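# nightly structure sweep
# worker-07 picked up a monomer target from the shared queue
# config: single-sequence mode, recycle default, output format = structure tokens
# input follows
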Amino acid sequence: MTWRRWLVTVLSFVLMLGVSAWVVASHWPDSGMPWLAWPVHAAALATVTAEIITRALKIQASARACGIPLRFGTALRVCLAGDFAAAITPARSGAEPARYLVLAESGTPPASRVLVLFLELFLEMCSLTVVCVVLAWLFHGRGTSVSGLLGLVGGYSTFVLGVGAAGWLLSRRNANGPPPAWARRVGLHAGRWRGIQRTLRSLRDAVGALRQANPGLMLLAFTGSVLHVLFKVATLPMLVFLGDPTFALTMDTLAPLVLWPLALFYGGVVVPAPGGGGFIEGAFAATLSSAIPAGLFAAALLWWRFYTFYLYVLIGGVAAGDATLRALRRGAPAHSPSDMS
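# output follows
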């Protein structure tokens, strides 16, 4: 990253902290800031641990299903380094290059790196779609706008899968040869078209490998993917219901605590500022201030953001730094997904 990008990242984090401070100050309870009991934090840490483990299991199992001998420790570093890079880059654009770097450092062949990243994204979108369907059924007719919230997240995953399907169809005819007439009309000259063709060939090979994957291991990977999404959205309900045992647990009170964080987490990818630039905190206050007890709201925002973002930045920074130092010591080239062929 250049110094300009680092400056943008720092300014975005400053804005994010400023919005958090404003929201907390405007919702400060008269009785003072409630301190969440240690069992609440223990449960939140256990949820974070389970989320990371199931996500790493998804990556390892899907890789082995396609004959790639990926170690669990490598899959774990892939997850965490991607989290760190996603947090400090616009629209989380640095996640895939960081994961690619960790795979390169581990000695994974270039074609296998492409396949691992493709499977991770494919399983993420499929599991997200399934979770949205199940939540739409569970919370049908509740006070929260279920169709709108789940439509946002489900639409995002469907769009990504649709783009992938279109790319696969394109790869069947246009992965080799000169650019077709329509490509030249939109300004894709031979150099750019060759780069697109490399991506199309990688996608075609990934789909071919997926067809021959071990079904048992792929089912295990998909299960891990679904569980990691569920653990991610379970954090806020856990903080609220364990933080205030008098708060009634019903489907109506649970719906906004599950659906809004899901929409903010996955819908926030469209925000260009690193870390959201305060959008997540502002949207949290706008959508959940009436769903969380007033005396607990400030603490819920702070700790939810810590356990779903800041903690991942801290752990991911360690993983990313470790991968970079390993690559430098071994003299490994810092490849990026744009180099894939």
